[in-house]
Write a structure and sequence with these properties.
Blueprint (H helix, E strand, L loop, with lengths): L2 H23 L9 H9 L9 E4 L6 H12 L7 E5 L8 H6 L1 E2 L7 E2 L2 H4 L4 E5 L6 H13 L1 E2 L10 E2 L3 E6 L3 H6 L5 H7 L2 E3 L11 H12 L6 E2 L1 H9 L5 H15 L4 E2 L6 H4 L11 H27 L6 H20 L4 H8 L3 H11 L6
Parallel strand pairs: 1-8, 1-9, 2-5, 5-8, 10-11
Antiparallel strand pairs: 3-4, 6-7
Helix pairs in contact: 2-3, 9-11, 13-14, 14-15, 15-16
């Protein structure tokens, strides 16, 4: 490998370390919502500081924030390195230096550390891990299996133990990639000792008002202080394919466009603004399909956390937990869809008003007749 490539890689890695220090110690972004996921991290994941964690979620759901939360919760008392690597940036030309380090050019014994060494006693975050090349997957699997690295370009007898937690994240379907032969099954198993699945924003729309307030405070520049009620209603009806990241971008743009202290409907992008003008048809097949799909997705996330709890020594009737989780999520989503109207929610779900009142009482939910 020529010296220009080595120098370029060393510069890039140096820049990465500065980025991680800033993210870890200067700007800690709050996590709004995802209480189950954060609670699972703080009560279970922290007890296994070397166990690998795989975060699977759609684009924009806050996987990087959860990775930071895992690191911070694990190392509350001592500041440890949090090394972030964008896996698409690992190429055939630089993979050995990035992973294993490199003896610096010229004479002397100094050397550039690879990412596993840089993360010593801390966390190595492999972002977009599905984009690793087959060669990089093989090399990382070798490190995880052996528990040590051989620094690139130095004696083959020199092995350095790795002492860090590996957290990986992806927005792609790794199981499908394994079936297609594009991702190693053994690496997926190794990375997924613990799984965390952040829910999409469409499944936690009750958190949209709080997120809007957070993003207005972040981007309003003391000029914008609120969003009008019809704006909030419109944002709650939009499906948010880009999740929280898209919502933040929307609020940031609206803060720039508005000439008042409030965000108005006309300050929203056209595709979102149009959502609020569509008539709502309670009980339609489309509405029911959206409710059922969202409820099942959230319920599966809840059950996944219970499975991890069981592996950690917990227990409980998982089948009953799954049933109750789906039922509760359907009730919550029906009430959100009908703005808390029990009669309309019962009609949407195809049950009696008496039945929905009982279920609301059973699950401790709120609504109005």
């Amino acid at each position: 490998m020529n010296e220009s490539v080595v120098a370029g890689v060393e510069t890039a890695l140096s820049d990465e370390v500065h980025l991680h220090e800033a993210r870890g110690g200067v700007r800690k972004l709050p996590i709004v919502g995802m209480d189950r996921e954060v609670g699972f991290i703080r009560t279970k994941v922290v007890n296994f500081p070397r166990a690998s964690v795989l975060i699977r979620g759609e684009t924009g759901t806050g996987k990087d924030l959860l990775a930071q939360e895992i690191h911070d919760a694990t190392h509350q008392e001592h500041k440890k390195p949090f090394i972030v690597v964008s896996c698409p940036s690992i190429t055939a030309d630089n993979q050995d230096i990035i992973l294993f380090g490199q003896k610096s050019a010229g004479s002397g014994r100094t050397r550039h550390k690879g990412i596993f060494e840089q993360a010593e006693e801390g966390t190595l975050f492999l972002d977009e891990v599905a984009d690793l090349s087959p060669a990089a997957q093989e090399k990382i699997m070798g490190v995880l299996n052996s528990g040590c690295v051989q620094p690139y370009g130095l004696s083959t007898e020199m092995e350095i133990p790795i002492r860090c937690r590996v957290v990986a994240a992806t927005s792609r379907d790794l199981d499908a990639l394994v079936r297609d032969g594009k991702f190693r099954a053994d690496l997926l198993s190794k990375l997924g000792t613990i799984s965390v699945i952040p829910p999409p924003l469409r499944n936690r729309k009750a958190e949209i008002p709080a997120l809007v307030r957070l993003f207005i405070a972040r981007h309003g520049a003391d000029k914008v202080i609120r969003a009008e009620e019809d704006v909030i209603r419109t944002l709650e009806e939009y499906p948010w394919p880009g999740n929280v990241r898209e919502l933040e971008s929307t609020i940031e743009g609206a803060c720039v466009l508005t000439d008042t202290e409030s965000i108005r409907l006309q300050d929203l992008p056209g595709n979102i603004h149009d959502t609020g003008s569509r008539p709502r048809k309670n009980g339609s097949v489309g509405s029911i399909q959206v409710l059922v799909t969202g409820a099942i997705e959230t319920a599966l996330s809840n059950v996944n956390l219970r499975l991890e709890n069981a592996r950690s020594g917990g227990g409980g009737d998982l089948l009953e937990a799954a049933r109750r989780s789906v039922e509760m999520e359907l009730l919550k989503k029906a009430l959100a869809e009908t703005r808390g109207n029990k009669t309309a929610a019962a009609e949407l779900l195809g049950i009696t008003l008496r039945a929905i009142r009982y279920k609301i009482y059973e699950y401790g939910l709120a609504g109005r007749d």
